[in-house]
Design goal:
This protein is an alpha+beta fold. It folds into three domains: about 5-150, Adenine-n6-DNA-methyltransferase TaqI, Chain A, domain 2; about 150-185 and about 345-383; about 200-340, Adenine-n6-DNA-methyltransferase TaqI, Chain A, domain 2 (Alpha-Beta Complex), CATH 3.90.220.20. It is built from nine helices and 22 strands. The protein has helices at about 10-15, 105-110, 115-125, 140-145, 150-195, 295-305, 305-315, 330-335, 340-380, and strands at about 5-10, 15, 20, 30-35, 40-50, 55-60, 65, 75-80, 90, 95-100, 145-150, 200, 205-210, 210-215, 220-225, 235-240, 250, 255-260, 270, 280, 285-290, 335-340. A four-stranded antiparallel beta sheet has the order 2-10-7-8. The protein has a four-stranded antiparallel beta sheet with strand order 13-21-18-19, with helices on one face. Strands 3-6-9 form a three-stranded antiparallel beta sheet, with no helix packed on it. Helix 5 runs antiparallel to helix 9 and helix 6 (about 295-305) packs across helix 9 (about 340-380). It starts with 5 loop residues before the first strand and ends with a helix.
């Protein structure tokens, strides 16, 4: 512990408070959730009392500190700001205020509880066989947590320093998102310009082409998933044949289009890159090959990352949200959209690659920034 700092149990500097209200059927209630990894509270939804199963809710105020009993081990702590004043939480979110005599800045506490080392301490008190069966982080454990506190003026200085860093990072993130949207808009505009009104059904460009491998109990199958909203593919740990109920997996090959039947409508689609050759996906991920001389895989990989293309996929299914039907291959192939000739597709790939290079550089910068705050928190609180 650093010179001049004291160590206190949270229960010695915080009071648990409660503002319980009975849920009335005709009243509306603004309900909160708490994001993981210290990302803070948010307005989750507003419901009528008749739509809420709980009989009682707890009201929060500006300046409260809350956490999720179920997900505290994953950093679900938050200071409540003025924007969420008067909202409600269930009894799974204990509420605290600083004791009148305590010398603790709750903004300082909020940053302190964003340390991964603190989450590991919390996790030790939330034991279970899997994350979904973990015991809740009870108030007795929260109150027993010990925090290192500098003098009040030093707490304020630390909070001001960290707030300033986060404000700058937020501005950078907004600029990055704006640039990403501009690149996407340019890609879509280029596509329409190259098509020049030429329409094509996707069954003229793609063909369902699934290479299936029968699963054997002793086999090992490295997995691939697809993020929604055109955010690309990612690798997952291998599963053994004995760990899955599927009888076969689809094998990935470079240049194939892969679409999640479940989440295709929100952009869970991508084109396989060389490094994923021979990896596996479940049968819920359908694979398609480009028809020679009609569709260029490289061109297609840029197009399927756009919101415009995801909107087209949404037209291939009915329902709303989680109630949407799966995007079946025949529905995908029946879609008709503007599409340029193969010659124009190939001529545009070089330009699209240059645009994409800027986007990847931005992504790498984002990864570095994501590691910045944890690193700074460690230096501030642990010397």
């Amino acid at each position: 512990m650093m010179t001049g700092w004291t160590e206190e149990a949270l229960g010695d500097v915080l009071d648990q408070v409660s503002r319980i209200v009975r849920v009335e059927p005709d009243n509306s209630y603004r309900l909160l959730g708490v994001r993981l990894k210290g990302k803070g509270a948010f307005h989750r939804e507003t419901k009528l009392g008749s739509e809420i199963s709980a009989k009682f809710l707890d009201r929060v105020k500006d300046g409260d500190f809350i956490y999720s009993r179920l997900y505290a081990w994953h950093g679900a702590f938050s200071l409540i700001g003025a924007d969420l004043d008067g909202a409600y939480v269930s009894n799974e979110f204990p509420i605290f205020r600083a004791k009148p005599s305590a010398k603790i800045d709750l903004s300082y506490l909020n940053f302190w509880l964003r340390q991964s080392r603190v989450w590991k301490i919390v996790e030790e008190d939330c034991q279970g066989s899997t994350p979904l069966t973990r015991n809740r982080f009870k108030e007795e454990f929260f109150n027993a947590l010990r925090i290192q506190l500098p003098r009040g003026v030093e707490q304020e200085r630390i909070v001001a320093h960290l707030d300033a860093i986060e404000e700058r990072l937020t501005r950078v993130q907004k600029l990055r998102e704006s640039a990403r949207l501009e690149i996407e808009a340019l890609t879509t505009s280029l596509h329409f310009g190259l098509a020049q009104g030429r329409q094509a059904k996707l069954d003229q460009l793609l063909v369902l082409d699934e290479e299936q491998e029968t699963i054997v109990p002793e086999g090992s199958y490295p997995q691939v998933g697809i993020r929604s909203f055109g955010m690309g593919m990612f690798t997952k740990p291998a599963v053994t044949g004995s760990e899955t109920t599927y009888r076969s997996f689809n094998v990935l090959r470079p240049g194939k289009l892969v679409m999640s039947q479940v989440k295709g409508w929100e952009g869970a689609v991508g084109v396989v890159t060389d490094n994923l050759d021979g990896w596996f996906v479940s049968p819920e991920y359908r694979t398609f090959s480009c028809i020679s001389n009609e569709c260029d895989p490289s061109y297609l990989s840029f197009l399927v990352a756009t919101t415009w293309f995801h909107t087209q996929l949404a037209l291939a299914t009915r329902g709303v949200g989680a109630r949407r039907e799966r995007v079946r291959p025949e529905k995908l192939l029946a879609l008709e959209m503007p599409f340029p000739t193969i010659e124009k597709q190939k001529s545009a790939v070089k330009m699209l690659k240059r645009m994409d290079a800027g986007k990847h550089l931005s992504t790498r910068s984002s990864t570095l920034e994501a590691a910045l705050i944890p690193s700074i928190l460690d230096r501030v609180f642990n010397g």
